[in-house]
Amino acid sequence: MPHVRVEFTVEPFREGELGGHVEAALRALRAEGYEPEVGPFGNAVEGDAAALLDAVAHATTAAFDAGASGVTVTARAASGEDAESFLAAVRPVARALGGRVVAPERMGAAAVPLVWKGRVVGGLERPAPNDLRNGLTSVVAQIEAELGGQLAELSRVDKQRAVRMLDERGAFAIRNAVDEVADAMGVSRVTVYNYLNATRSSSVP
């Protein structure tokens, strides 16, 4: 089923307020299960073509019934570029943790749906527990290569950098990862938690 994006403008335009004719169209779409994007000069909604265009027809009728003087509707095939960028960002994290991203039609029962703008665009297949250990080892090896030395040999500043990089790549989502990283660095788990707290605090705006 084609996925489309419909942009629509309901006239007359009233600066600073939607007006009853616009609200009527939005209510009609919400009643059909959609949540429109409401903008200052127009609105948009996405979904499967057949159902969405039918819902937009109902919304248009509701707008005219509420006093609209005109409704401009533009429908286009929804771009997959944003969704693909989202999946591209998830893939390296999934690989580092021993999992993988699969297409929607290849998702198994245990896969975690990856939803973009209300649409399932892929699935995250989680690794088995043993694979998680391999995933952490793989991430640590990548970071050691990037920083030019084993974790235990790094300076204090580079150990802090390593913890930040591990956190950014999702390594600490693995059970007991803090203990294993502490052992690899030759520091206490409290020290690793301190590094984590520092890097997370510094990222807060």
Helix content: 40-55%
**From the 3D coordinates, which CATH architecture of the largest domain would you assign?**
2-Layer Sandwich
Beta fraction = 15-25%
Q: Quick one: how many beta strands?
A: 7
Q: What is the CATH C-level name of the largest domain?
A: Alpha Beta
What class do helices, strands and sheet pairing give? alpha+beta
Give start-end ranges of low-pLDDT stretches: none
- What would you call the shape? elongated
What spatial order of strands do you see in the largest sheet?
2-3-1-4
Number of domains: 3
Q: Give, in order, the helices and strands.
A: EHEEHEHEEEHHHH
The averaged pLDDT comes out at 82
Number of helices: 7
Oligomer: single chain
CATH topology of the largest domain: Alpha-Beta Plaits
Question: How widely separated are the two ends?
Answer: 42 Å
Structure description:
The chain is of the alpha+beta class and 205 residues long. It has three domains: 3-77, Alpha-Beta Plaits (2-Layer Sandwich); 81-125, no CATH class; 129-202. Helix content is 49%, strand content 20%. It has seven helices and seven strands. The protein has a four-stranded antiparallel beta sheet with strand order 2-3-1-4. α1 packs antiparallel against α2. It is elongated. The model has no long low-confidence stretch (mean pLDDT 82).
